[in-house]
Amino acid sequence: MDTDKLPIKFFAPREIDELRIEGNGNSEKPKWVLEGDALVKRAEILQASLSDIETIMIERKQSASPVPFSFIAKIQEDATAKSKRKDITNFFQVKDNSSVIGVADVNELIVCLDSVDELRQISGKLRAYEKNDYAISCIEGFAEFEPSVMATDEVCNYKVKLVDYQDFEQNLAMRRMFEHTLERNKIEYKKTTYSEQFYVYNMKMVNTDMLEQLKKEEIFNALFSVEPMPKYTVSLDFVDDDQEVPVKIPENGKNYLTIGILDNGIASIPNLKPWMEMDRWSPYPNDSINPTHGTFVAGVALYGDECEGKNWVGHKGIKLFDAAIFPDTTKEGLDEDELIANIKEAVALYHEKVKVWNLSVSITRPVVDTKFSDFAIALDSIQDKYNVLICKSAGNCRNFENNYPKGRIHEGADSVRSLVVGSVAHDKGQYDYAEYNDPSPFSRVGPGPEYIIKPEVSHYGGNAGVTPSGETVTTGVKSFSKDGKMATGVGTSFSTPRVTALAAGIQQELSEEFDPLLIKALITHSASYPKEMTVPVTERAKQVGFGIPKNVPDIIYNSPYEATLILRDSLAKGDKIDIMDFPMPQCLLKDGYYTGQIIATLVYDPVLDPSQGIEYCQSNIDVKFGSYDTKEERDTSKRHILNPVGRKGSQNLLLGTVYSKNKMKEKSSEFALKERLLIQYADKYYPVKKYAVDLSELTEKKKIEYLSPDKKWFLFLQGVYRDHIERMAQIESFALTQEFCLILTIRDPNQKEHVYDEVTQKLDEYNFWHSNIRVATDVNIPL
Fold first, then answer.
1. Which of 112, 144, 176 corresponds to the end of one domain?
2. Is residue 484 part of a domain?
3. Using one digit for the tens of pLDDT, what is the confidence trace for 56-87?
4. What are φ and ψ of residue 102, in 5° steps?
5. Domain boundary at 198, 229, 260, which?
6. In angstroms, rounded to a whole number, what is the distance separating the alpha carbons of residues 178 and 180?
7. Is residue 580 domain-shared with residue 500, that is, in the same domain?
8. How far is Cα 26 from Cα 29, in angstroms, rounded to an integer?
9. CB atoms closer than 10 angstroms to residue 47
C-alpha cells in the first residue's frame, strides 16, 4: 500500500466493552435542599401562590370548557438539571401521564390538569413539605398560563402554534376546535406540519379586530403563541468580473454524486448545464423564478476551486439538482410555512437520489437563547425522516456598516441536524475590515440556543468594509451570474456551498452507504483554525465554529505518523461503552512518558422534542479518553455494582485542568495555533463536541501521574437523557437510543514514529474488529 495513502479506519467495541450504567448509591441529601424554617416558609409561599391558581381554575371550569387548564410553575435557574427535574415532575404527578407537558420559557414549566381535585392533590403535597423537600426547594412560584401574543397594527399573516398536551387525542381535538373557530370567524388559514405532531397555522390577512376577537374565544387558552408570520426574501449584489473559467464536462461512465440546491433557481448557463441531469423542480411557474442567487451558489459548489485557483475542496465533479423553492421575491414574498412546505416536498420527492442539500437561504431574525426556532425544528425533522444532510448558511449581518458588533446566527442556523457554515475572508482589499483568514465582517456568530456550537465550520465567503466616505465595499468570491458571466459576491451563502460540495466529494470517494453523521463528523474532525487567524482562542468557536475543514483527500487518508479511528455505533439508555484496552501506541513513549496529539470529535443525534422549548435536545453523550492504573474485579453482589470489571486510577485527559497554562502559552507550533481545543462542555447538551490536546502540555506533576509507561488507556462513552423523554419512553413503550459517530486521531507531531502501523497491530492484538474505510476503486486521488 502507498504509505502516503493510508485510509482511516472503522473499529467497534468488543462485547466486554459494552457495560451497564450504575447508580452512585449516595443516600445523603444535596446541600441545595431546603430544611427547617426555610423549607416551611417556601412551602407557605407556594401554597398561597397555588391558591390564586385555584381561583382562576374554578372560574374557567364553570364553563365546562373542553380546553384543558394549564398554569406555569416557575423553577430555579439551575433546576433544569436531570437530578432536580425528576423530583419536580414527580411532584406534579397526579395521574398516569405526567402533568408537566412542556417548557414555556427558560425556567418555566407548563403544568396541565384536568380537575380542581388534581390541583388540590398538589396543594396537599405542599403541606407534606418534608416528604417533598427536593421539589419544593426547586419551585419558586406559580402563574397563570397565557399564550404569547405579538401583535402588529398592520393587516398581515399570523403564525399560530397550539400547546402540545403530550396526548394525541387531546391535541387532535384542540386542532379541530381551533379550525372550527377560524372558520366560524371567517379567517382563512393554512396548516403546515413542521415536524411530526408539530403543526403550525398561518392565519391569512388578519387585522387587530380579528385578533382581539380570537382572544375572546374559548380556544384561545389552548394556543401557545401568536406572532406575525416571518417572510423571506433573497437579495444579491453582484460585481462583474472579466475572468473566464473553462467549461468542464462530466466524464462518460463516471459516477457523480448529486447535490440539491434549495434556492431561487439555477440558470442553464454553459458552465453548469452539463452537470444538471434532472429537470428543475419548483412549485412556481418559470416566469416567477429569477435564478440569480441559486446560479451563484451552484457555481461556487461546482467551480469554487477553479474560480479561485485553489484546492480548497478537492472534489472531482458533482452533479447539480435545481430545487427552486423560492419565487422572485421582488414580485412576491414568501411566508415561512410555505418555504418549509417547499423544502419538505423537494426533499421528499428526490431524497433517494439526492442526499446532500445546500440551503443558503436565511431568515432575517436572529436566534434567541430561550428556544430553538421553528424553522430549525422543521429542518431537523426533514433530515431525520429522509436521511439527508442539509448544509445551512449561518446568515449575514450588516452591523459592521454602523460599527455595531456582529449579530447572532439567523433562525434555521440553530438546526441541530444540519451542518451550519460561517464565512472567513479569503482576501483583503484596501478598506476591508477583516484580515486574511479572519472571520468575514458580515458572518453572523454563535452560539445557538442552549450554547450549542453554531456554526460548526466555516469556509471562504468574502470580505467587506466601509470607505472613509461611508461607502460599503466588498472583496467577493467568484462564481457566475445568471447570464453566464463571471461575477463576485460575498456572504455565508457562498461559503456554504463549498462545504456542501465537500460533503458530496467525500461521499463520492467512498464505497460506504450514505451516513449523515459520518460525513458531518469527518468534516468537523478535519476542521482547524488558520494560523493567521487573529481572533482570541476563547472567541473562535463562536465566530467560526471548529474552523475551516480540509479538502477531500486530506480527510480520507492518514499519514504513516498518525492513525484515525472511527467508532460508529448506537448507545441505548442504560448502556455505556468502556474500552479498557485502547490501542495506544507505545512508540509514542519518549523519555519515559507518553507523548502525542489526540484529536477527538463526537457527533451524535440527540433525541429531540419541540414541546420542551430550550430543552429541545433531550439527550446527551459524554466522552472521556485517558489513562488508568489497573483493571480491578468488582463485587456484583452489591446493590449498585453491575459490571464485574472496572478501572482503578482513571484520569480523563480531555480536561483542560490537567494541562499547563504556561506550556500552552509558550507553544507556537502549528498544532497550538490551529488545532488545540480544550472546550469544557460539562453537562451541556452539545450535539457536536471536539477536543484536541497535546500530551506534552500536561503539567509536570500530571505527566508523572498519568503518562508513565505502565499506564493503560481507555475510551469511555455514556448517554444521558432528560427526565421528560425518559417518562415519555416509559409511557409510550419505546426504546431510548442515540446514534453517534466518534472520530479519534492519534498523531506523532514530530512525524517520526509509525503510529498507523502500531495502532493497527494493537487492534489485532486486543481482538477489535476493524476495517479500512472503503474507498471507491475507480477514483484516483492525487496527494
1. 144
2. yes
3. 888 887 667 889 999 999 988 765 566 678 88
4. -175, -175
5. 229
6. 5
7. no
8. 8
9. 13
